[in-house]
Input
Amino acid sequence: MVLLIHHNISPQSRKIRLMMSEKKMLFVLKEEEPWNISPNIKKLNPSGELPIFIFDGNIISGNYAITEYLEEAYPEPRLLLGDAKQRAEIRRLTDWFDNKFYDEVYKYIVVEKVYKRFRDGLSPDSRTLKAGLNNLKFHLEYIDWLAERNNYLCGQEFSLADLTAAAHLSVIDYLGDISWEDYKNAKLWYSKIKSRPSFKEILKDTIKGIFPAKHYTNLDF
Output
């Protein structure tokens, strides 16, 4: 049995959960607050970051290490697919969301709205939120452009890039900060992704004291 130490607003954790669900794996979740990491977590992963993947006494930490392990150990269905060029593009977009989107959007919106509330007991800074929402527009325009040209972000087939992007967007969408009507192609693409069976449990996630946007669990918006 696989144990994944995670938190439901960690987009990297959501991505790994989605990957395991797509690959029909059995796993157990253990929640850890990312704003209040326990000493035991740092023993498992010195960086103190989530998620942490544990199986048969083995520990894999690091978002990319877990991703690559799952793709090698559980090859069906392939999420890094196609030829070398296509796999490079999938990795590029995966990195885009796990790093660029995370730094430019997640840290400005989710950290302000959620982390500061539970970690510091503080309200979000309006200037920081505004900057994050402006950054979000740029990313949504890019997703909209990609979705206009293909069925999925990296072409005609569903891939790790779609899972990663949707994992990040789902946290922002929970908080109600995406104006989907302004991005028709991105909206259609996201609707396809969150309609997949692997997304079912993600849409059940809740944040204590913060209610999701009304459309959050609506597969057709």
Notes: The first strand starts at residue 2 and ends at 6. The helical segments are 11-22, 39-44, 63-73, 84-120, 126-149, 160-174, 184-194. The CA atoms of residues 40 and 218 lie 37 Å apart.
